[in-house]
Amino acid sequence: MQTSVYHTAVLLKETVDALNMKPDGVYVDVTFGGGGHSREMLQRLDSRGQLLAFDQDPDARQNCPDDARLTFIPSNFRFMASYLKVHQVTEVDGILADLGVSSHQLDVAERGFTHRVESPLDMRMGPGMPQTAAQVLNTASAEELTFILKNYGEVKLAYRLAQRIVRQRELAPFKLSSDLRPMLKGLCPPEGETRLTAQVFQALRIHVNDELGALREFLEGAALVLKKGGRVSVISYHSLEDRMVKHFFRSGNFQDEVKTDLFGKPLRPLQPINRQAIQPSAEEQAVNPRSRSAKLRTAEKV
Predict the structure, then answer these.
(1) Where do the domains of the chain lie, and which CATH numbers do they carry?
(2) Could you report the per-residue pLDDT of 252-301, keeping only the tens digit for each?
(3) CB-based burial of residue 31 (10 Å sphere; 0-12 exposed, 13-18 middle, 19+ buried)?
C-alpha cells in the first residue's frame, strides 16, 4: 500500500492486479488523487506503455511524477471518453477508478468535506461545480432537500430535517459546518449522531458534485472505450455507488434488467470478473481506517 502526503491508495495491489496489465498497453486512472494507483500502474508499464490520468481537483496535479508516459488531464471523469478522443486515444486496455474522497480533501478544512472540524460548507471536488453545499442549504426547497437527504444519504426523517433547515435559514444563512450540526439534534439517539451527520454530509457532497450522474456517464464511457478483453476496476465506498457499478457490470444497465440473446447469453458490454466485491484485508483496515467501507469490482469487455 502506497502512502503520500495527499492520500493513501486503497486496495492498491488488488485493484491494479485485477487490470491484468500489459507492459505496452494504454491505461487510464480516472481518479488520480495522490497518484498512488498511477505510480503502481507505471511500474508495470515499459517504455511503450501509456497512462492517462484524470482529476478535477486542481491540487492533484502537484502529485504527478516526472514521467513521459503519463498525461494528466484536469477534468471530471464523466468526460473521459471525450478527452481521450482529444488526445487521439480511441481504445484503452484498462481503466481504474477510486471513487472515494481523498485524505487530502478530508483533512483540509477549507474544502468542507468533513464534519469533524469547523469548516465552510463547500464540498466541491473541483472549481467547476455550480453550487457549494451552503448555497444548496440556503436555496433548495424543503422537497428538494428531502430528496437529497433521503436518496443520497439514506437519512431517516429527511423531511423533518429539511423543514428545520428551511426554518433556520430564515434566521441566518448556513455558512459553516457548525451551523448545520445543531439541526440534527433529537433526530436520533445520541449514540447515532455521528453516523447521521456523516450521512447528511455524504448526501450534500453527492448532490453538489453530481457524483451519481458522473459515475453513470463514466461507466457508459468505459464500456465504449475499452478494447475487447480490456478491464475496468472500480473502488466504491457506499451502497449507492456500489449498487450502480454492480448492476452495470452484471446487466449493462442501471436498472439491473438482464437481457439475453436467442441462446440465453446476457447482452451486456462487460463481464464481471468476481461474483463478490473484494474488500480490504483486516491488516489494511487497521493501517488505513478510511479503507473500511471500500469495495472493489472488476469487469472485462466482451
Answers:
(1) 12-104+211-301 (3.40.50.150), 130-208 (1.10.150.170)
(2) 999 999 999 888 888 899 999 999 999 999 999 999 998 999 999 999 99
(3) buried
